[in-house]
Fold this protein.
Amino acid sequence: MEATVRGVRLAYDDVGQGPPVVLVHAFPLNKAMWRRQVAAVAEAGWRAVAVDLRGFGGWEAGNEPFTMDLCADDVAALLDHLGIQEPVVLAGLSMGGYVAFACVRRHPHRLRALVLADTRAEPDTEEGRASRYDQARRVEQEGVGVVVEAMLPRLVGETTRARRPEVVAEVREIMAAARPEGVAAALRGLAERPDSRPVLAKIDVPTLIVVGEEDVITPPALAEAMHTGIKGSRLAVIPGAGHLPNLETPDAFNGALIGFLETLR
Ligand code: MLT
């Protein structure tokens, strides 16, 4: 499905009936990464809404600078478009988690619970920021392949690399759908994202933190730091998975997700 929200076209999936669960994807993927979660969440009696952030999934990036705040406002506007006024369970993986932190800052009343998967509260280092700007320039000149091939070996865990070639192929295919202008804009937005550590103590909704045990991009130590910072949060460490446990070991990821949703009933 598609909607024009704040002047840009966004695609989304909206499946199932019940209280809403909104899923926000990682960089540089799109809502297709949530396929198995959308099915499981809907099956469990919830309404699963998986959204493509602007510039991803083939749609235009718009003219405004891509920021986590802009994406959070897009998500809130999409909820308005869908007539969803009740607070939602917001699940974000990696960049999706950065957007979730922006929602905590800007739209706290829209949140019923949070799932923060393979993400971090820390901002980029100076070096990390410079490398994102460099990559953004290269993507504009050479295409998204630059980012896809640089990131792919780090996105999935070593177990997936060794034993699940079909998952590696699926991740590559999802990333290949990204467009250079969307990827470049997002890289600059990721570089400029704020420090979300001050947000942790302000989170007062039930929160599940999930991390793949083999995640080298946002390793388990960062998940533990969020777990310590967010009062009453739960932490699920998924064995045999890297940065994308929802794709690498979907049964384990879905078990943690659905188990958490059950506690909210
Ligand atoms: C992601 O998976 O969204 C990215 O790895 C996030 C990042 O590069 O910080």
The chain is about 50% helix and 15% strand.
